[in-house]
């Protein structure tokens, strides 16, 4: 739709700013009238009401609701309101706000599975409390007709509840059996159904013992474990998706000289796309207009910016640094090299698929053991008494008393406590077995650019210059937002230097900045532009009026906590390695600075993955820490992987754990937490086993009453949960 | 023992009310923002201008 055709019905004052904005707003609008904003700084009741009041005041906004738990605002608005307007409104009243891509978020908006589990848990809790009440009366001596009535009421409550609340277990056990496997749910389902059936039979014959309460408590405890497990992962998943949603996939398409903002998915091959400084390439293509510099570090690990001019090919994911560029798209969407590399990750054999979780290992040992024991008890008692009813009762008692509920809680209770602890330290555990795998790590492989280093340059040779030169360079650097310029400005202002007075400062995209000093030309920029010879390391050159040239050299500044993390890992006895795609000199310098003995430079993405696989083949358990696209294959191949929040989406998807802050130091901590979590899990298994060793002989001997079963089950479940809480 | 004939239905009914209430809170989305709801009660704004 063109601007001219559009009737002027906009009610939004900000949209009246210009026809381009209006057209943009409309394109937006037809899709999402529902907007989401991330508000990282809100924390109190006043923040909530201030944000909501301000948003609701905006014309076109129907409702605005803040969610403090997720630190997010959801806005229902008329179609002409854009997220950008609302972001600037909120920034006006002092709250940081970022637009979130509603499409990416919608998956976690309503936690359906979690609600479903909670509902089943509530019903099981209600039923088990009531049945337990009736059972207590039976145990305290209700007899004859009264006991039968209590049993019948219990049956009436228990049967529908078990069908409703036990559904997740029935479904999971059935799918395991269909595939010819045994999982923890098979003995659970068997115990529950056998308990209910024998109890029903006993009730009909007005027998003394019924296990309705045991079956219900079992379901209740197991659902608790299931729900804890689900919550841990739901929290991690929603935080991970929020990271992804922060990168709103939009691009500026140029048609007949006019700029239109569109979704990246709408771009097609041959389109002209404008990429502003600081923007990321949305497509593969060739530069047709403009000069600039490109940061390719996320794709290749190189820190030196690449000079960009018409004719140069660019890949999706590269960052444009200085001047606006117009790109003609040659590949879009799934066809871009970014996507093709990300797809490689899915193909690569991943460390996590080879790993069997502790719970599954326990189930493999436990399930057949319990079934054989119970079958033996049945056969033994049948031969002894020739009475099916007695034999079946005892077999059911054995199945119930062996109590998979402590085993079902043993792992989720610990992982919930450990993940919560790591989450508070800024780590997001995305994969359910990531903690267990983290505990086994003996080798840590780091990527350099963007992982150990912050990706921002730092001036190294400030002391070599006299103050006038520095103040001149500073004044020139202030005319540009290039990372090297900003590094000069921050280093100079930290040294207390004032910028020199210059006139006619202008930035020449792709080359540098130039200005006049007392009518004479001075320049700060690339070597070839100022007439100098390029150096091996990252550098910028200052050309003085008299023709002399000064070289400013830079190094990549370390990420916060990088030194501490490497130090702690080395002290912990881990093998630490550095593998980077950057040049030998840069990698060696960083390795020496951090005290890392083993390093590999100029590694291609395949080299990284191959090295990780070679280490794994030697029986090492490798933790890979990386952020770029060139790391994704290695991240997927490693036993367990971590990526920082600043990493490319593809790298975050490939890794098990995401670091939310910019600090690296929690990594060493995470290894320690993971090890103590595994210790707790093993302890929990041992506690559950001890209960079984005491209770199983009683059950086999036929001495186990429903009261003893209930006591054993509850006390083992509670001990296991309390033991897990010690981790907090 | 006749007392049981109405005590048991009464106890089940009371428990059922609790369960029904919980299901209502679950259905009406009251667990999606526990932290925000805990703060909102401190502000008068929602008392003075309740949602229609």
From TrEMBL, chain A:
Its EC number is 3.6.3.-. GO terms for molecular function: ATP binding; ATP hydrolysis activity; copper ion binding; P-type divalent copper transporter activity. Keywords: ATP-binding, Cell membrane, Hydrolase, Ion transport, Magnesium, Membrane, Metal-binding, Nucleotide-binding, Phosphoprotein, Translocase, Transmembrane, Transmembrane helix, Transport. GO terms for biological process: copper ion homeostasis. It is an enzyme of class 3 (hydrolase). SUPFAM superfamilies: Calcium ATPase, transduction domain A, Calcium ATPase, transmembrane domain M, HAD-like, HMA, heavy metal-associated domain. Residues 33-98 form the HMA domain. The chain crosses the membrane at residues 117-140, 152-174, 186-204, 210-228, 365-384, 390-418, 689-713. GO terms for cellular component: plasma membrane. It is a multi-pass membrane protein. It is found in: Cell membrane. It comes from the Bacteria. NCBIfam families: ATPase-IB1_Cu, ATPase-IB2_Cd, ATPase-IB_hvy, ATPase_P-type. Belongs to the cation transport ATPase (P-type) (TC 3.A.3) family. Type IB subfamily. PANTHER family: ATP7, ISOFORM B, CATION-TRANSPORTING P-TYPE ATPASE-RELATED. This is Putative copper-importing P-type ATPase A. It comes from Shimia thalassica.
From TrEMBL, chain B:
Pfam families: FixS. The chain crosses the membrane at residues 6-26. Keywords: Membrane, Transmembrane, Transmembrane helix. The keyword ATP-binding does not apply. Coiled coil: none annotated. Residues 36-52 have a biased composition (Basic and acidic residues). InterPro entries: Cyt_oxidase_maturation_cbb3. The keyword Cell membrane does not apply. Residues 30-52 are annotated as: Disordered. This is Cytochrome oxidase maturation protein, cbb3-type.
